[in-house]
């Protein structure tokens, strides 16, 4: 007999516990984000080595959610609910977010380059624009491609999972 | 798990597809499909919402007689 196995479960308690786990996840996310911001101000520059742990937490958590949501068919449900209510489709929003992130990264690197390396105002403007444009040219296509591929593969896998769940229905 | 045929019949009586019923009660087609198959236990709130949409009572759709 297993003394540690308690099979009695109250659904209200389980639901409340799940809510707490959700809050804990958000808390960890906020702590990681605060840690990244603090390190940026403490060191005065952005170095990947300093924030590797935080980045791993962000990335692995995101990827894990994406994979599990696709396996359980939740991603298709998210897309369906979103597309029923919104004027813009989920896919359009995903691709647009890739462009927006690319522009923001371009701005960040452009400003960083202008502040860190320029000696005069005209040089700062020149450095800003050259880095801004180059960063956008590099990041936007990569981000859009990565997001488009991950969207379509997640959707495909999720649709398959839904089909399997409902297959003996009719 | 037992299939919920009463829900399926009531839905068909109203000439609604799973997707149409899902849209009316703000859930996905998958959720309605899983409820009909008896693979998902809906919350009381969702049950009431489905009943109101199909003009049925909770007993009509969700009470299952023991054999």
From TrEMBL, chain A:
Pfam families: DUF6773 (PF20563)
Alphabetical keyword list: Membrane, Transmembrane, Transmembrane helix
Keyword Transmembrane included in the entry's annotation: yes
Protein name (record): Uncharacterized protein
Transmembrane recorded as keyword: yes
Source taxonomy: Bacteria, Bacillati, Bacillota, Bacilli, Bacillales
Transmembrane segments annotated in the record for this chain: 24-45, 51-67, 95-118, 124-151
From TrEMBL, chain B:
Origin: domain of life: Bacteria
Protein name per Swiss-Prot or TrEMBL: Putative transcriptional regulator
Key words of the record: DNA-binding
Domain HTH cro/C1-type: 7-61
InterPro entries: Cro/C1-type_HTH (IPR001387), Lambda_DNA-bd_dom_sf (IPR010982)
A GO MF label: DNA binding
